[in-house]
Design a protein that fits this description.
6-stranded parallel beta sheet; 3-stranded mixed beta sheet; 351 residues; 15% strand; 11 helices; single chain; alpha/beta
């Protein structure tokens, strides 16, 4: 809207989801259960998956707003919303997201808008008595050359990946904001704000923009178009050697709800007051070259695959340690091959 660059994807306003009206509730009124939950970013890939999974678990008192209905970077508007709705819990999945090209092109928007959104939501949640909040971060919070797999204690131990540093700094600020409110207001106000750090996500509701999307949706679109046009070759940015970990978005949503539902004593047993975030990963990684061939297979593309080595690679490896979450009893269910098939079917149905 306004003078914002048109090519930047607002994750919380991308994917159309049935729960896109204010105070959206599903099922008969008699089935409505407490708590009242606000999902910020319910139309984005992550937010819509959280709504799906909450509803599947019987949570029917879900509050939502579209981007047009509530501008989360507007402090006064967010304050009015919380005063009106008074939610019991908040899932903060709203964020401005994008791939290497978008982060390099719009660094000012990525740091400003993400800081404004999370500052407004977290602070107004506190002012309006919200006891439980879950902040969703990103694996880019860790240093570019962090030891692999990256554990939670790698945070703030080295330089960030330059291509997405502004976005990463905003996400780090969100973690520290949650920790700060816990440290200051846990005893006096019962505040329990938690953070989860997802690895690279893909699946239903993803952004398939040709320039500003992440690697899996970008490649799904590119291979699909190459198949349709009978293109003899698909050229991919970089060398193909960086390794990445990928998690199906509904697995991430299930993990988010799992963490939110943990009793405080159990959550505190795996975290520290100033290192309170928990990683959510798949458990293994693959090269971009291997990923490209897997997506070519999922889309049915049979041509050649080459790499443009003049383009940036990003971090050489991003693989997260999910040991803490695994020790708490959670593990992913969707393997990459099956997840790519589902993602391609969803792309075709909305292309």
């Amino acid at each position: 809207p306004g003078n914002r660059p048109a090519l930047v994807c607002w994750d919380f306003d991308y994917a159309i989801h049935p729960a896109d009206r204010p105070n959206q509730q599903t099922g008969p009124a008699a089935m409505t259960t407490t708590p009242k939950i606000y999902v910020a970013g319910h139309r984005g890939m992550m937010g819509s998956a959280i709504v799906r999974n909450l509803q599947a678990k019987g949570y029917n008192n879900i509050v939502t707003r579209t981007h047009a209905e509530l501008e989360l970077s507007n402090q006064a508007a967010v304050a009015d919303f919380f005063k009106l709705e008074k939610p019991d819990q908040v899932y903060l999945a709203a964020a401005k997201v994008g791939g290497i090209h978008a982060n390099n092109t719009f660094p000012a928007e990525f740091i400003y808008d993400n800081l404004m959104v999370q500052n407004n939501v977290i602070h107004q949640a506190f002012l309006n008595g919200v006891k439980k909040l879950l902040f969703l971060g990103s694996s880019c919070i860790y240093p570019r050359l962090a030891p692999q797999p990256m554990s939670e204690d790698a945070l703030l131990t080295g330089k960030l990946e330059p291509t997405n540093e502004p976005y990463a700094i905003a996400k780090i600020a969100g973690i520290k904001m949650c920790e700060s409110y816990n440290r200051q207001y846990s005893a006096s106000h019962g505040v329990d704000y938690r953070s989860v750090m997802p690895t690279n996500l893909y699946g239903p509701g993803d952004n398939y923009h040709p320039e500003n999307s992440h690697v899996i949706p970008a490649l799904i679109r590119r291979f699909h178009e190459a198949k349709v046009s009978n293109a003899p070759e698909v050229v991919i940015w970089g060398t193909g050697t960086p390794r990445r970990e990928f998690l199906y978005v509904d697995d991430m949503a299930a993990a988010s709800i799992f963490v939110m539902e943990l009793d405080k004593k159990t959550y505190d047993s795996q975290t520290q007051p100033m290192q309170s975030h928990i990683n959510v990963g798949f458990g293994s990684d693959i090269t971009i070259n291997e990923l490209a061939h897997a997506i070519a297979k999922a889309t049915g593309y049979a041509g050649n695959i080459s790499f443009d080595t003049s383009k940036p690679d990003g971090a050489p490896r991003k693989w997260m340690s999910s040991d803490r979450l695994n020790q708490l009893g959670w593990s992913p269910k969707v393997i990459l091959e099956n997840g790519l098939k589902q993602a391609y079917l969803e792309f075709q149905s909305h292309s």
